[in-house]
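Hi team,

Below is the intake form for CCHC-type domain-containing protein from Photinus pyralis. Please confirm the fields before the structure is written into the shared record.

FORM ID: S-0412
PROTEIN: CCHC-type domain-containing protein
ORGANISM: Photinus pyralis
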Amino acid sequence: MVDKANSFHQLASAKPPTEMSFEGNLADNWVFFRQKFAIYLKATTLEKEEDSSKAALLLNMVGDRVIQIYNNLVFEKPEDKDSYTKIFDKLNEYFIPTKNVTYERNVFFTREMGIDETVDEYVNALRHLSSSCEFQDLTDSLIKDRLVLGIQDRSVKDRLFRESNVDLKKAIEICKASELARKQIQQLSSAKVDVVRDVVKQHKKYGSGTAGHKQTNRGKTQANPQPREVPKKDGCYCCGGDHPRDKLMCPARSAVCNKCKKVGHYARVCKSINTITCNTVSNNIKKL
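The structure came back. Fields below:
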């Protein structure tokens, strides 16, 4: 009873693998699913089950599209269709075609490091490519060589060339140390720019503390002069209006004054004595 309870707990706690993806590289996707399925079998102790039970579990989890491929596979014996080992071998043949080692090695040796790619990302990509190259015992040594040749930082590349007896582990440490230092310098530079920007912003907001004064060439301050008032222009002495001082533009240039009867101005700006008033006063004096 205890063993059954433990088995049930393991089945409930283990995460089943997701279906095989058909986006991107099918060979890589199949290898990835195969790895996840093997981990699941080990975590649930189902790897000890019979071959036919594991075959059914594989087909149950791998996805509908793989089942369609399985249905069209040709097996030597009818009973092989229920064999976990035989099904795995057939699917390996289907998804992983015969590889061209020369081509795979060319892809490996021409793999450059991306501009925004980290050292860890680049090394992992090289490891993945090397798995198809059959380097065997030379794998780490050739990954180190490709790292030295493919890294973007010229100063790090020069240092790795100068160092003697550098293995892959040491090369990765040097590259990652340089990568970390470069990021820290960028962060410090960015922080410095932010401080300067804040100071300028505060200066614009509150001023320099010498409002109403300006600095002279000799370092002395003096009060800012008050703006000069522009004298207002008098109205036209012919019409009383506001227009450029040009007689041709004056509307009263041909008008007859109602007071003095002269031509060239209006009565409202006439400076002559009113003749009607003078005559009236003179007549009144004579009557007296």
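SUMMARY LINE: The CA atoms of residues 121 and 206 lie 49 Å apart.

Thanks, M.
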